[in-house]
Write a structure and sequence with these properties.
Number of helices: 2
CATH class: Mainly Beta
Structural class: alpha+beta
Number of strands: 8
Largest sheet: 8 strands, antiparallel, barrel
CATH topology: Porin
Strand order of the largest sheet: 1-2-3-4-5-6-7-8
Oligomer: single chain
Strand content: over 45%
Shape: elongated
């Protein structure tokens, strides 16, 4: 395992511990089992992308705001242009709060990988910082029979509906 892979596993475990609290112990065991997997069976992916809001439904009641935001865009993974869709469910108080939802990656040949997202959003000035963990739900084609977890960070400059710049680090094991 490379130093970068070990560091990624530490980041993932830390993210899971922060987002899951006491329930993180089983998740940390899953990270440890990923670290023990054969290097040929583990694929570490890291990529960045800017996603634009294509549809949203939100409610605002005083300082409370909740809703669903559909974001789409593309990224490059291994030199291939991959379509990305993020379904974001939010529940904010004064711009801060939990996030959840899904992230789907679709390759040009139709192969897909779908992840659940759980995390936190924090408003600092006019910028919203997003931190979350990802868990592979399912995959098709080349991603069939994979399991995996990862971390996601993001930055939105402006109100809900503005583009979001994300960084994703994944560790997938077959």
């Amino acid at each position: 395992m490379t130093i970068r892979s070990r560091a990624l596993h530490v980041v993932i475990a830390t993210g899971l511990a922060l987002s899951l609290g006491a329930a993180a112990l089983p998740a940390q065991a899953a990270v440890a089992s990923l670290a023990e997997a054969s290097p040929r069976a583990t694929r570490d992916l890291a990529f960045s992308m800017t996603l634009d809001s294509v549809d949203r439904y939100e409610q605002t009641m005083g300082a409370d705001q909740y809703g669903v935001n559909i974001l789409e865009g593309t990224t490059r993974i291994g030199g291939t242009r991959v379509s990305v869709q993020r379904i974001s469910v939010t529940q904010y108080v004064d711009g801060n709060g939990p996030i959840s939802g899904f992230l789907t990656l679709t390759w040009p040949d139709g192969d897909r990988a779908g992840f659940s997202v759980s995390g936190q959003s924090e408003l600092i000035g006019a910028r919203t910082h997003v931190y979350g963990t990802l868990r592979l739900i399912a995959g098709t084609g080349r991603w069939r029979d994979y399991a995996g977890i990862g971390v996601m960070t993001g930055l939105r400059r402006g109100p809900i509906g503005s583009p979001v710049r994300y960084r994703v680090d994944l560790s997938l094991t077959k």
